[in-house]
C-alpha cells in the first residue's frame, strides 16, 4: 500500500496537477491538506473520474483535509480532532482504508511567535498527542500523515539561521513533536533516509525552489503495527517543479499489504 501525504495549497488551483499525479503514480491512498475549499465545492466527481473514492473535511478559503483511496471508498472514523469543541478549523480527518487507519493532518502554522497563533499550535499538538495515544492503544496499523508544520531537527532545513525565529522550528514545537514520536510512532522518512536530507517544502519566494532551499515538514508517522510493514518512503520532488505546482511535494511511504 502506497500512502501519500500532499499539501495541495488549494485544490481548485492545483486540480490539474493532482489529477496528473494520481494518473502517473497511482498511489493507493492520498492524504490531502490545505484544500481551501468548502465541503460543497470539493471536486468529488473529478476524484471519482480519476478512480478514487474520497472523504473530506472542508473549509471555505483555508485549511481543509481529505483522504482519497484508489478504487475504494474510505470509511470515515473521525472528523476533527477531539479535545476542543469550540475549534472550528478543518485540520483533522481519520478514515479506515483496507484495514489501515489513515489520518490526514494539517497542523497549525503558529506564526508569528510569540502570539495566540503559536499558543493555538501548541495546544493543538497536545490534543493530537492525546488522541494519538488512544489510537496506539487500539493496536492496529495506523498512519498519521500530513503537513505537521514542524521542522523536527536542524538537519531538516536548508538553513538553521533562516528559520531560527519561525514557529516551525521553535523548541516548543520540536518538543511536542518528539513527545508524539516517543509514544511509539515511527517517522517513515527518517527511518528510510537517516542521513540524507530530504525536503518536502520549498517556498514560492526568494527562488527557494531554484536554490533547493527547502525543509521537511510533511511527515508520515507509523504505529508499531504499520512500522513492521514499512518497505520504503520518499519524496516525489520533481512534482514541485511543474507549472503552477503546490509549494509542497508529494511525500509517501509504502507498507506491505
UniProtKB/TrEMBL annotation:
Protein family (similarity comment): Belongs to the DNA repair enzymes AP/ExoA family.
Per the UniProt record, the site (Important for catalytic activity) maps to 218
Q: Which UniProt keywords apply?
A: Hydrolase, Magnesium, Manganese, Metal-binding
Name-wise, this protein is Exodeoxyribonuclease III
The record's listing under Pfam families reads: Exo_endo_phos (PF03372)
Active site annotated at which positions? 106, 147, 248
List residue numbers at the site (Transition state stabilizer).
149
Tell me where on the tree of life, at the top rank, the source sits.
Bacteria
Coiled-coil region = none
Q: Site annotation (Interaction with DNA substrate): which residues?
A: 248
What the entry lists under PANTHER family is as follows: EXODEOXYRIBONUCLEASE III (PTHR43250:SF1)
Which Gene3D superfamilies does the UniProt record give? Endonuclease/exonuclease/phosphatase
Task: Tell me one GO biological process term.
Answer: DNA repair
Amino acid at each position: 500500500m502506497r500512502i501519500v501525504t500532499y499539501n495541495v495549497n488549494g485544490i481548485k488551483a492545483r486540480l490539474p496537477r493532482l489529477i496528473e499525479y494520481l494518473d502517473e503514480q497511482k498511489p493507493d491512498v492520498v492524504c490531502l491538506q490545505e484544500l481551501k475549499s468548502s465541503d460543497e465545492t470539493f471536486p468529488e466527481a473529478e476524484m471519482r473520474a480519476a478512480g478514487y473514492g474520497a472523504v473530506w473535511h472542508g473549509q471555505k478559503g483555508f485549511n481543509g483535509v481529505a483522504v482519497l483511496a484508489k478504487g475504494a471508498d474510505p470509511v470515515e472514523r473521525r472528523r476533527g480532532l477531539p479535545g476542543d469543541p469550540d475549534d472550528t478549523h478543518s485540520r483533522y480527518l481519520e478514515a479506515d482504508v483496507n484495514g489501515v487507519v489513515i489520518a490526514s493532518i494539517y497542523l497549525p502554522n503558529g506564526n508569528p511567535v510569540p502570539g495566540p497563533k503559536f499558543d493555538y499550535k501548541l495546544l493543538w499538538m497536545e490534543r493530537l498527542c492525546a488522541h494519538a495515544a488512544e489510537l496506539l492503544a487500539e493496536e492496529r496499523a495506523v498512519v498519521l500523515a500530513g503537513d505537521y508544520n514542524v521542522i523536527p531537527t536542524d538537519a531538516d532545513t536548508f538553513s538553521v539561521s533562516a528559520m531560527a525565529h519561525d514557529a516551525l522550528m521553535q523548541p516548543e514545537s520540536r518538543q511536542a513533536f518528539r513527545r508524539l514520536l516517543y509514544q511509539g510512532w515511527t517517522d517513515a522518512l527518517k527511518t528510510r533516509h537517516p542521513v540524507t536530507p530530504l525536503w518536502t517544502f520549498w517556498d514560492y519566494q526568494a527562488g527557494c525552489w531554484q536554490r533547493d532551499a527547502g525543509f521537511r515538514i510533511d511527515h508520515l508517522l507509523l504505529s508499531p503495527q504499520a512500522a513492521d510493514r514499512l518497505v520504503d518512503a520518499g519524496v516525489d520532488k520533481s512534482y514541485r517543479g511543474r507549472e503552477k505546482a503546490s509549494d509542497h511535494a508529494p511525500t509517501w511511504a509504502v507498507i506491505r499489504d
